[in-house]
Amino acid sequence: MSPVITMGPFHPALEEPYKIDVVCEGEHVTDASIRVGFNFRAIEWLAERKNYTADIALFEHVCGICSNVHTLCLSRAIETLAGIEVPERAQYIRVVVAEAERLHSHLLWAGIACELIGFETLFMACFGLREKIMDVLEAISGNRVNYAMNRPGGVNRDIADPGAVLAAVRAIADATSKQLIPVLTTDATVRARCAGVGVLTRADAIAYGAVGPTARASGLPQDIRASAPYEAYDRLLFEVPVRQEGDVFARVVVRALEILESCRIIEQAIEQMPAGPFRGDDYPKVPAGEVCSRIEGPRGEVFYYVASDGSDTPTRVRVRTPTFANMPTARPMVLGQTFADVPLIQASLDPCYSCTDR
Amino acid sequence: MDAESILHMLDVESAAEHRTDGWWVDVPDLDVRGLATLMRTREVRFVTLTGTPDTAGGYRLIYHWDADGALLNIATTVSAGCIASIADIWPAADWVERELRDYYALVFEGRAETPTLMLLEGDEPGLFSRTSAAGREIDPAVTARDAAEAERKES
Amino acid sequence: MTVVRGLISLLVFPGALFALPAGWFMMWLQRKINARAQGRIGPPFFQPFFDFVKLLAKEPVVRPRLQGFLMTVLPLAAVASTLGAIALLPVFPKAGGFSGDLVLLVSLIEVGPLCAVLGGFVSRSLYGGIGASREAVLTLAYNVPFLIALFALVASAGSFSLAGVALAAAWPVRVLALIALVACIPVKLHLNPFSAASAEQEIYAGSTTEYDGPRLALWELAHALEWVALTGLVASLAFPVADAAWPVRVVVFVAVSVALVVVLSFAAASTARLKLAQTARWFLLCGSGIALSALVVAFVRL
Amino acid sequence: MSLLDSLVRTARRRSPWLFHLNAGSCNGCDIELVACLTPRYDVEQLGIRLEASPRHADIIVVSGPVTRTTLEALQTVYAQVPDPKVVVALGSCPASCNMFAGSPTVVGPLDRIIPVDVYVPGCPPRPDAIVAGIADAVAILCGDVPRPEPTHVPVVADACATGGLS
Q1: Binary contact (D102, B140; C-beta < 8 A)
Q2: Total domain count for chain D?
Q3: Facing residue for A320 by CB, picked from B19, B47, B119
Q4: Taking all residues of chain B, what is their mean pLDDT, rounded to a whole number?
Q5: Which of A131, C84, D50, D102 is most buried (most C-beta within 10 Å)?
């Protein structure tokens, strides 16, 4: 009789409630099952009962960490349905905010991952660095979390001081490449905890439908920004980091390199950003129809399906968040690993349970 | 493999429509397991499955696929409330099917078990269907629990 | 006379009156250094003291009688035995008095971790149990180099008495043995990189997960005293000059202890936590290697 | 007031340990609470620590509108924290359910389930507001400020558990 250890729903390793039942032989994991739904607020149900304006605010609260991707994806769905174009300046502003959000999300993740391997000093360093990008987001939107930037037809606020954004982004790129990446990739204790741990093979990544950095660390070069560019991404140069190993260390490396790529994108976007209006005059009227919308969030592909009957309330909004796709891959990853690795492996997916549950 | 060749292989090229958000096609009598196997062998990524009630009292299921970056939306209709499961072919579909059971009490045939995903263990499936009439007029001060309590007092 | 001396070393120096504030000071220093290394300001000076008082003043959770009794007695035993170990430290090797031998000191130091293991099991919490079993595995692992190193000192000094060891051990043996002993301290104090027994992110607070209020306060107290006992053990063995005046001895004893706290804190702040198996392997290979070389040197010299 | 009393009060004021509980929150509040620990805000200066076990805590910080699925765990954790304890409702969700009001799976607001002592408004509150809220909680904890009258009589578990779904 192997003991079943239940982690959660409230566990210090987890910012959010979820349960993972781990079956152990000694310290070795022989089976695991994940239970979600603790954050289930039936947002999709609520969305069918609120108008589009209220829905934008509602979906901002799918997740407090990647709130911008949700409003962006929903706004794009509404724009596609209504057949309206977004002013060019707004497209660039959206890119800047989306990449700034990726920066803060990746730094947050790096911090939490360090905390999980007990490296508190590096956790603090990551969060210290993250405050720089939080300042940028606050300067642009007025908020540290939940930026309320997107609306159908454009963005709500202009970037008043592009120079400050550039300076902050350059400082982050500098600190990342000179301090964060060297420590993460060379420290012996970090390597001992990450390399070869929690491997997701390429075949499993496809079968489980992994997206985002998780898929890219397993050798799948998928990125919506490159494969189906939206907003201004087709006019910006960036690379999609891909690793073949599929272990925790590969996911660390992919995200670290993405931090640098995001800095590059923001720099280009600020420099290329044209003058002009940043939003349309009116809220659009949404005709009947259905539409899908996808963007690349920090954790991977975000998918929205919106169906409208022509009224001011959608008849169905379906959200497939990246963690919903990624989370099942945790099971093949933890099998055969030690119990001490389980929190780190699940964290290496950059899970967001409030996204998953909605 | 690209979306057009897939549509050709499925023999639904003529019915398919290309929109800004990808390819759309309605196949009322879709062989979902055949489709899933084809997609699996061609490495077309399973994106997700959307379920939504249709006006006729049945459900419209849309299988979303990513073929070389292009979105392929293959819709079908479920009138009897059950459809074949593809979770054994695509482990990625496991959670979505469980979720759809929680929301609309749809039955996916061929699964050994369909545990709840979002609801508590032992809850009746079909939360969205059961509560579809509720909450159209939301008073932010009144939560569903108050409504339930009021109902209990009345009865 | 010896009884008076014994009581003084138990209650005054290096015992309770000195050890309590010293333990709190060391805990504060470790947290402060950790905070400064992370670019933070860190806790105020009296923090561990206030933590202790606050915990004492909390209302204990009602528990079944036997469990409640055990959960009070075990941390008390840890406090008492650690205090006893401190009293035995050979700060004044020539002063005579109650001069216990090394075996007694080591067994008293070991009672603390043993109580923690038992305490984790009697708390009937899953995480307490896991923490306790990890603690047990680690105790086995680090005790291999710990005991070999002490044995090397004994072999070199030709005496089991603490004072004898402190005075007579040869320098090459002493240095190697002390390095091995220092490496064992982080395990006992749950410091990085050997803190697997209290890995908050995996098993909550390890064996103390279920302890609350006054009972937790006792564990905190035992923890503070362990700081003094372990750093003190190294400090007293590292300063063997027999005829220094007592104020000099005290100053050196305190200074070496504090220096050790600083070194250990910096090491903890700049490392990640190793897994249980990795920690155990480190002690059985590297730690034991150093200790064994000390032993070899001791025998060759003989 | 005796010397011992004033020592205990000072100790409580200077050593508040928190247990954070996410009852269906969107992460916004939670991440701002974590930000409080980091160099810019550094609440360890005030003796504040985020504890892993509810048994060690003095202050329970709850974020989120309380979903059906977290309800039972919430009540367990509340019972596990030894007295004296203070409950802080972090953000708008535990105060009013925010935009999740009306959802069939939300049973909040928090004060219907456990008594709430301090509300920290905001969606999410900024870290400085969170620190100020914890300071309010500490004042209640050490007895400087009387505990507020409960706004609701907490309801029993069964009535909540079936909320909206029966």
Answers
A1: yes
A2: 1
A3: B47
A4: 78
A5: D102
Is residue B135's pLDDT more than 60?
no
Check CB contact of C93 with chain A, cutoff 8 Å: no
Q: Which residues of D touch C40 (CB under 8 A)?
A: 38-39, 42, 44-45
Q: State how far the Cα of A256 lies from the Cα of A245, in Å rounded to an integer.
A: 15
Nearest CA in chain D to B145: D163
pLDDT recorded at residue A305: 92
pLDDT tens profile A31-61: 888 778 788 888 888 888 888 888 888 888 8
Contacts of C182 (CB under 8 A, 6+ apart): C234, C260, C263, C264
Contact between A41 and A28 under an 8 Å Cβ cutoff? The reply is no
Residue type, D86: V
Domain B3-154 has CATH 3.30.460.80: yes
Neighbours of chain D (3+ CB pairs under 8 A): A, B, C
Q: What is the mean pLDDT of residues A214-231?
A: 87
Provide ipTM, 2 decimals: 0.81
- With a cut of 80, say whether residue C223 has pLDDT above it: yes
Q: How far apart are CA C47 and CA C52, in angstroms?
A: 9
pLDDT at A14 over 80: no
Residue partners of B34: CB distance under 8 A and separation at least 6: none
- State mean pLDDT over A253-269: 89
Cis amide linkage into residue D124, ω under 30° from 0 = yes
Chain B (4-63) residues lying within 8 Å, Cβ to Cβ, of chain A: 19-22, 40, 43, 45-48, 50-53, 62
| pLDDT tens digits, one per residue of A153-188 | 888 888 888 888 888 888 888 888 888 888 877 777
- Which pLDDT belongs to residue C302? 57
Going by CATH, does the domain composed of A38-333 fall within 1.10.10.10? no
Q: What is the pLDDT of residue C99?
A: 56
Q: What residue spans define the domains of chain A?
A: 38-333
Residue B94: pLDDT band by 50, 70, 90 thresholds? confident
Identify the residue among B25, B42, B44, B45 best suited for mutation to test binding to A, counting A beta carbons within 10 A and taking the highest: B45
Structural domain including D67 reads 3-161
- A357/B64 Cβ within 8 A: no
A36-45, A101-110, C61-70, D112-121: which range is least confident on average? Answer: C61-70
Residues ≥6 apart with Cβ < 8 Å to C4: none
* Whether B138 and A36 lie within 8 Å, measured CB to CB: no
Mean pLDDT of A248-277: 88
Closest CA to D64 of D19, D115, D107: D107
In this complex, the chains that touch C, judged by 3 or more CB pairs closer than 8 A, are: A, D
- Rg of chain A over CA atoms, in angstroms? 20
Provide the pLDDT for residue D88. 92
Q: Do A16 and D22 touch (CB under 8 A)?
A: yes
Q: Please state the φ and ψ torsions of residue A301, each to the nearest 5 degrees.
A: -65, 125
> Where on the phi/psi map is residue A322: left (φ > 0), alpha (ψ -120 to 50), or beta?
alpha
Q: Per the domain annotation, does D166 fall within a domain?
A: no
Instruction: Evaluate if residue B139 carries a pLDDT over 50.
Output: no
> Residues of A numbered 25-44 whose beta carbons fall under 8 angstroms of chain B's beta carbons: which are they?
36-37, 40, 42, 44
Token pair recorded at residue B149: 């309590």
The per-residue pLDDT for B143 is 47
Place of tokens 């992994």: A210
User: Which residues of chain C does A187 touch, with a Cβ-Cβ cutoff of 8 Å?
Assistant: 271-272
Say whether the peptide bond before residue D109 is cis (omega within 30 degrees of 0): yes
Pairwise CB contact (< 8 Å): B138 & A45: no
Domain coordinates of chain B in residue numbers?
A: 3-154
Give contacts of D77 with chain A, Cβ < 8 Å: 10
- CATH code at D88? 3.40.50.12280
Cβ-Cβ contacts under 8 Å, B43 against chain A: 206
For the cut 70, the answer to whether the pLDDT of residue B39 exceeds it is yes
